[in-house]
Amino acid sequence: MDSFSNVIRAASHEQHVEAETSTFMSDLLGGRLGVDAYTRYTEQLWFVYEALESEAGRLASDAVAGPFIRPELFRRGALERDLAHLRGPGWRAGMSALPATRAYAERVRECAERWPAGYVAHHYTRYLGDLSGGQIIRDRAEKAWGFERKGDGVRFYVFEEIGNPAAFKRGYRELLDAVRADDLEKQRVVAECRKAFALNTAVFRELGEEFPLSA
Ligand code: HEM
Question: 16, exposed or middle or buried, with CB in 10 Å at 0-12, 13-18, 19+?
Fold first, then answer.
């Protein structure tokens, strides 16, 4: 039988392509949008990571979610430095979650509070993606908007405390494979992972509406 980490990856493959090739992402990575769109996107990420990380302390002792809670992954501090750079010292004022972001953050919070295995699906979808494709986004952002390499503006994509991301990802997949849950629960986690991708795509859709390209 296929390992759980392979099942999750295969189950979300199509949606990964969809997210990657969404109009907003393509325009952003294609250098067709301004830094204001990048800033708005970074704002949305803050709301999502706030939901992912504010319950992390409590989840650290949970049998299922606990092994995944690794401080070297935490992104909120890095996002706040990026936002201070992008929006200025009063970065918090006037930030707003898009409706799709609000729905995403609410779902993450719900899982964090009531269903640790579901929380793992959200954890995987964000952090493993950030460790992978996030590096491509960082490279493009540095070039498009002139951020210092791995500096303010793109710190979200820099995992200072993870020296070897490939090895870290291998270890992460081993943690997924070691999740103690029966088949039905694993199916639910896979479904939650697909939902997590859909929630991300919905955020991209709304960002795309807010930043349409002038034809
Ligand atoms: C333009 C945007 C994106 C690019 C260029 C990109 C690119 C990549 C690349 C190159 C990998 C490495 C695959 C591997 O390690 O074998 C990856 C993995 C991954 N990405 Fe993305 N990605 C993007 C957007 C996203 C989004 C929006 C999500 C979800 C929120 C996401 C979630 C993931 C996950 C969970 C993995 C790990 C798959 C696994 O090995 O289990 N990615 N991505």
Answer: middle
Q: Is the C-alpha dihedral spanning 105, 176, 170, 190 positive or negative?
A: negative
Ligand 1: list residues with CB < 6 Å.
9, 16, 19-20, 25, 29, 124-126, 128-129, 132-133, 136, 197, 200
Per-residue pLDDT tens for 106-160? 999 999 999 999 999 999 999 999 999 899 999 999 999 999 999 999 999 999 9
Single pTM value for the model: 0.95
Buried b (16+ CB within 10 A) or exposed e, 64-99: bbebbbbeebbbbebbbbbbebbbeeebeeeeebbe
Q: How many CA atoms lie within 13 A of 126 on its CB side?
A: 29
* Ligand 1 center to 128 CA (angstroms): 7
